[in-house]
Amino acid sequence: MSESKENALGGAASGYLRSARHQPIEWMEWGEEAFAKAERENKPVLLDIGAVWCHWCHVMDRESYENPATAEIINEHYVAVKVDRDERPDVDTRYQAAVSAISGQGGWPLTAFLTAEGNPFFGGTYFPPDDRYGRPGFPRVLLTMAEAYAQKRDEVMETAGSVMRAIEHNESFSGRGGALNEALVNKLVGAIERQFDERNGGFGSQPKFPHPGAIDLLIDAAGKPMSQNRDMGHQDSAKARSVAETTLRRMAAGGIYDQLAGGFHRYSVDERWIVPHFEKMAYDNSELLKNYAHAYATFGDEEYARVAKDILRWMDEWLSDCERGGFYASQDADDSLDDDGDYFTWTRVEAEEVLEREEFLVAEALYNLRAVGDMHHNPLKCVLHVAPVGGATVGQIAKALKMELAHVCELAASAKQKMYAARLKRKTPYVDKTVYTGWNGMCISAYVQAGRVLGMPEVIAFGVKSLDRVLSEAWGEHGLAHVVAYGEGVAARAQVAGVLEDYAFVTNAALDVWEATGELKYFNAAREIADTMLTRFCDAEAGDAMSRGFFDTEKDKGGIGALSAQRKPLQDAPTPAGNSVTAMALLRLAALTGENLYETRAIDTLETFAGIVEHFGLYAASYGLALQRAVSGTVQVCVLGSDERADELEAAALRPFAANKSVVRVRDLNALPPALMETLPHLPKNGKSMAVVCRGSSCLPPVGTVGELKAALGGVAQG
To answer: pLDDT tens, 428-463?
Structure first.
């Protein structure tokens, strides 16, 4: 295929798929047409799943898929299908499970060999172009699998059948239900604490991921009164606080955090948080934004507010459609395969070229700029990181350089500004401007929650604007679409249906916006989306209530190959699991509406996984947050009024963070859901701002001062 000629991916809407449109492989998109061709031509299917932000996907593209000899093998022996894992999470999750069952591997690029029916019989991740790294070369694998499919079809079909049975078994949680109680919450907290890296913060060893859900669960535990923690069997809230704060501080000081632009990279390849994989994801930054906002609300340390505002700065600059509302998906790690993080990293010479002498002396010590840096491909390149992970504090620098502390702070600020300005002149890694529905739900919730805690109404306003766009462009009679808009400006041939996470994240986002604004239309939207979610995704027909929960795709819809396997997601990997987020949304709605169905389905869902969830530990933190609300009961704080006193009451109500607390700002009593209005006592109509604290169906008398509100909240927490 010539460079100018396009394969079928030229008509794709996904930026990742379109990037392969000039490859010499006759790629097709996932769909009936590709598998019908495989059946017609009696060929297996080569499935490649990757993402625009995935470094090794681009490596395999260049080494293998752009190689004419390899392309000739593929075109002769296979029907080749390429999938964007962000666009089709339903396809990705199932074939990840399949390849993991076959090889024990997972990740991207995912390379799977399928029958014409779509059933996997072999697979792996990255394959090198020739035998190396202890892995067989890709051409040899291609020829071996093609020969097996042609000459050992019975064995291939038997293997494919075994893999399909393994997928279906692994995704079934039937008979694993259990009771819900506070002890289970504490088992999850304890499991997280046991994986804590006391030296470096975070959990486990390299590679090290942030695990925002776990951090929120720890912040929740840390914010509870000691007596309540003892009652729950969790003896030491100080331990939860130490784990959460050490992790937050170490991450913010490390190279996983972009010290110049703000925002977090996806994960660290080392246990000290220094060298990251440089891609930056909307979903990581949304959840980490919540972490730092919740930590600020709970512990009061201004450093957490600074990091939260820095995340907002990066998201505003790089991931926000400022004109229309909405959040983009990701920023790539590299500009090219020869640029292994070069956009983000610095040599001493590069820093000296853009800084004055004094500025360089401060930046050298502050950011740990050394003659021998951190990057294997170029030892001169340093990943910027600060104390306590590396480098010196401004106080230490002032003492060493014999400068006034204020002057050092000024030099540090000007050095940061100049280095970022210089970095902006470099070729910027690609930003995928696709607006995904579920990830936007996460970002909207983060903006609204952070904006309220930080007192930044403009942040809340952009969250509201973004939700308006999602509801306008992705929600309708068809249900919820998975994609609001594609970044390349190309219309999709067919709409990708929303998955469970899309519905759950947007439901929670709409509730967050309603709580912040008091506008009833957002509450109504949350309820409508949740009702559709119940109809389309809930396994309500299961005979045993403890075998229910929600499927990740619309039930009984079926699909090609592994898409026929029904999944009930429990594990946070890496976004919060669909069933956990759904349970949280339904519990919130149950408290606001009094509708028994919402609570019943939420409890059924949590009970379905209760017998096995503690084995997921760190990867079931979002379940722990929903469980905490279920067993502790929802605490609602309604703040009525529009003046400065109401603002002060709202700020106090938001502190500390608690997984089971909702703070509703009410400017018009007529904007309350009927059930909540019935719960509130007869309020005095004296025109004064006030707050009412409710738990379950009972409310305390209205209070008018911050001190009275704190006392009321303390009493409810103890109860």
So the answer is: 999 999 999 999 999 999 999 999 999 999 999 999
DSSP strand E in 481-617: where? Answer: 483-485
702 touches 646 (CB < 8 A): no
Q: Which of 629, 655, 650 is nearest to 640 (CA)?
A: 650
Alpha-carbon span 156 to 137, nearest angstrom: 21
Rounded distance, CA 511 to CA 679, Å?
Answer: 18
pLDDT, tens digit, 9 for 90 and up, residues 511-566? 999 999 999 999 999 999 999 999 999 998 766 655 689 999 999 888 999 999 98
**Cβ atoms 502, 511 nearer than 8 A:** no
Q: What is the pLDDT of residue 305?
A: 98
pLDDT of residue 230: 45
Q: Which helix (H) or strand (E) holds 83?
A: strand 79-84
Distance between CA 228 and CA 244 in Å, rounded? 19
Q: Indicate the pairing of strand 661-666 with strand 635-640.
A: parallel
**Residues whose CB falls within 8 Å of the CB of residue 328, separated by 6 or more in sequence, listed in order:** 282, 318, 319, 320, 321, 431, 432, 433, 434, 435, 487
Closest CA to 126 of 61, 44, 74: 61
Q: Which residues pair with 81 in a beta bridge?
A: 28, 47
Mean pLDDT, residues 10-28: 96
Q: Contact, 286 vs 329, CB < 8 A? A: no
pLDDT at position 175: 53
Query: What tens digit of pLDDT does each residue of 78-102 get?
Result: 999 999 999 999 999 999 999 999 9
State which amino acid sits at residue 652: A
Dihedral (C-alpha) 144, 150, 151, 152: value to the nearest 10 degrees?
Answer: 80
The rounded distance, in Å, linking the Cα atoms of 442 and 214 is 16
Place of tokens 């090219």: 336
The three-state secondary structure class of 436 is: strand
Distance of CA 352 to the CA centre of its chain: 37
pTM score above 0.90: yes
Cα 193 to Cα 388: distance, rounded to the nearest angstrom = 21
* Residue 306 token pair: 């600074």
Of 88, 138, 233, 98, the residue nearest 631 (C-alpha): 233
What pLDDT, on a 0 to 100 scale, did the predictor assign at position 70?
98
- The residues facing 665 across adjacent strands are 639
Assess contact for 292 and 248: CB atoms under 8 A. Answer: yes
- Burial label for 195, CB within 10 Å (0-12, 13-18, 19+), is middle
Of 188-202, 213-227, 411-425, 700-714, the one with minimum mean pLDDT is 213-227
Q: Give the DSSP per-residue string, 309-342.
A: HHHHHHIIIIIB-TTT--B--EE-S-SSTT-SST
Residues 6+ apart with CB under 8 A from 492: 13, 483, 486
